[in-house]
Amino acid sequence: MTRTLRIYEPRIDEKTSKMDVGGMSIDATNTITGLLYGLANHKSNKAREYYFWRLCDELWNHDELPEPLMVKHPWAESMIQAVIQNKYVSIGGAASSGKSHTMAAWGILNWLADTKRHTSSTDIDYVT
Predict the structure, then answer these.
(1) 31 to 22, 47, 96, 119, 125: CA distances (angstroms)
(2) Which of 49, 88, 90, 104 has its Cβ near the most Cβ atoms within 10 Å?
């Protein structure tokens, strides 16, 4: 991990007992919750990209699994950068190039990071 990216890594501040998440201070919690907080709340696109890939590693690429389930490859990196930078994105590509897999991971992690903002239409009460 490069020194620049290390500043985003959640860590407990020994002086305050708070968790520092890329310069944001939250109540002490576990690493995954800190990473999810960073994904949902950090203003830097580079930081949000970092939190996405760190979460993929924590959840789907850890050593207990027989193989990584979310592979970081150039196409996936480009897709994640595009969805972070743009409100609307259209993604095309060859079959089995990871489009659905990458976007599913993006959707799952964003929902976990901020369930109140990412609700489905079936969760909304309609007035008739």
Answers:
(1) 12, 15, 32, 24, 34
(2) 49
Domain residue ranges of the chain, discontinuous segments joined by +: 3-117
Residue 121 is classified by DSSP as G
CA distances in angstroms from 119 to 85, 88, 100, 113, listed in the order given: 21, 18, 20, 12
Enumerate residues 6+ apart whose C-beta is below 8 A from 38. Answer: 8, 10, 21, 22, 24, 47, 48, 50, 51
Q: Which helix (H) or strand (E) holds 25?
A: strand 24-27
pLDDT per residue as tens digits for the range 39-88: 999 999 999 999 999 999 999 999 999 999 999 999 999 999 999 999 99
- Alpha-carbon span 56 to 106, nearest angstrom: 9
As given in the structure block, the two tokens for residue 118 are 């990412």
pLDDT of residue 72: 93
